[in-house]
Amino acid sequence: MSPVGxxxxxFPLSGLCLGSDLHPKKTPLVTGDDVPRLQPGHRSLVAGIxxxxxxxxxxxxxxxxGELSAFDAFGVADIAxxxxxxxxxxxxxxxxxxxVTATAILRLRDEGKLDLDDPLVRHLPEFGAVRARRGxxx
Length: 138
Prior knowledge:
By secondary structure, the chain is α+β, with helices and mostly antiparallel strands. It contains three helices and five strands. A three-stranded antiparallel sheet has the order 3-4-5. Strands 1-2 form a two-stranded antiparallel ribbon. The model is unreliable at 1-27 (pLDDT under 50).
């Protein structure tokens, strides 16, 4: 499933938001109580999107200058039991790894560390041992 882009003049949203700072920092784990909640205008916008699109629940974080500046949870974590989604709810990772990998590759491209047309073996030499059934891996 691909991310859904939802935008308004006031508040751009996407079904999947990734922070611009992918470099890990040695900071303690942040919990829901450590960060301010979304402002009322943002809360009503998100609640309206959930209602209009029949989305059961979502956690929303706003990252400014590499820091989490606001965090909030909306809806339910489990439809069957009607369990409320909280600031400390856990989510399954599922197929998001493709999006994270693509984002990391694009960051490396932006930093000039690779070109999207580079042969795979330039960056992952182990793939030199792989033999294609047809075509080329270059």
